[in-house]
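Exam revision sheet. Question 4 asks you to relate a sequence to its structure. Input first:
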Amino acid sequence: MKFLIDTHVFIWFMMEPEKLSKKVLKQLMDEDNEIFISSMSFWEIAIKCQSGKLSLGRINTLHLPHIAEDYDFDILNPQLYDYVSISQIPLKENHHDPFDRMLIQQAIRNDLILISKDEKFQQYEENGLQLMW
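Answer key, structure tokens:
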């Protein structure tokens, strides 16, 4: 199976794996699965670290892509059509986060199951989003 992990899933997998559901942890550890992390997640983490909203302790944000590769996660870069077609995902009254919207679009366009605990994502299942938690 092919999965795209939400930013918090990557952080928890690195730092607090006990926060992940057993189901998610099993999928992340299964060598038969293909796990993707969006380059947008690295950007989101860097912005949140710089603003003081997130601390990774002793982990340097410059090392995050290498850490992802060490876990055998594939880095998924948005394609031009991901950016321009984001308008195809309806704006939800309670959800405007641009990082989340890009992950949702990447998951839909690449037929990936998005692993996230964010309950707001459920409202995009009617638009083709496949979710797991």
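Marking note for examiners. The radius of gyration is 14 Å.
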